[in-house]
Specification:
By secondary structure, this protein is α/β, with parallel strands linked by helices. Helices cover 47% and strands 16% of the residues. It contains ten helices and eight strands. Strand 1 (2-5), helix 1 and strand 2 form a beta-alpha-beta unit.
């Protein structure tokens, strides 16, 4: 049997138990960074997660972000890419927003809005890696429930939630997680993301260098097919 991994660093965890592992690469391979096509960007992307539990636990921070946008620049536009099972929940939570808010499920339209995106507020996960590949400055937020966080402290020995921060062992993508995710801390970090272009440019530069370390030269499906053929 052969195990396929998304990242090169994952192979060692299997190989130490004499399990054969092949890195096929991450699907971000297919995302092309076209962030320089549009010079004037007036859209803020909100990515609140793909699970209803994430929406319920984290949307209060998207509400806070909306309120800050109304104070600082109400002419901006909010763009929320989502999935069918979350659409009604997000519509309900944003129905009183006075800022232009677009909620989209169509992949082609989503990509077009990403071209106009100035910054993104992202629930930690694959979405954060995809945003980094698109060259969009971001702030990552995530929160375990209280008891899960306590248990995780005993078993998880990593400093960060974002995969690029983990790989580089330093904070290149700003993230606020778990007990650190508080209203005053969030507002400060979000406002910095909104106005600090120098910091945002550095974030993209460092993210690009980190991504170059995990991207392979071939598409993931080609490497996977080559691996499967060996067993046929």
């Amino acid at each position: 049997n052969e195990i396929f991994t998304l990242f090169l660093f994952e192979k060692k965890y299997f190989e130490k138990y004499n399990l054969k592992a092949t890195c096929i690469g991450h699907p971000i391979y297919y995302i092309k960074n076209k962030s320089k096509v549009i010079k004037r960007k007036n859209t803020i992307a909100f990515l609140p997660g793909s699970r209803i539990g994430e929406i319920k636990s984290l949307f209060m921070y998207y509400q806070l972000a909306y309120e800050q946008l109304m104070k600082l620049n109400s002419k901006l536009q909010i763009f929320i890419p989502t999935l069918p099972h979350l659409r009604e929940e997000i519509i309900e939570r944003t129905k009183k927003w006075k800022m232009d808010t677009i909620i989209i499920m169509d992949d082609k339209k989503i990509e077009n809005y990403f071209l106009k995106t100035k910054i993104a507020l992202v629930c930690s996960g694959t979405a954060s890696l995809e945003i980094a590949k698109r060259g969009i400055p971001q702030l990552v937020i995530y929160k375990f429930n209280y008891f899960t966080e306590i248990i995780a402290r005993f078993f998880v020995r990593i400093k960060f939630a974002n995969i690029l921060n983990i790989l580089e062992n330093k904070m290149i993508i700003p993230e606020i997680t778990n007990s650190n995710l508080k209203k005053n801390v969030f507002i400060k970090q979000f406002n910095k993301l909104l106005v600090d272009e120098k910091s945002n440019n550095k974030q993209i530069e460092k993210a690009n260098k980190a991504i170059s370390k995990i991207e392979l030269l071939k598409p993931p499906f080609e490497i996977a097919v080559e691996g499967i053929k060996k067993f046929l």
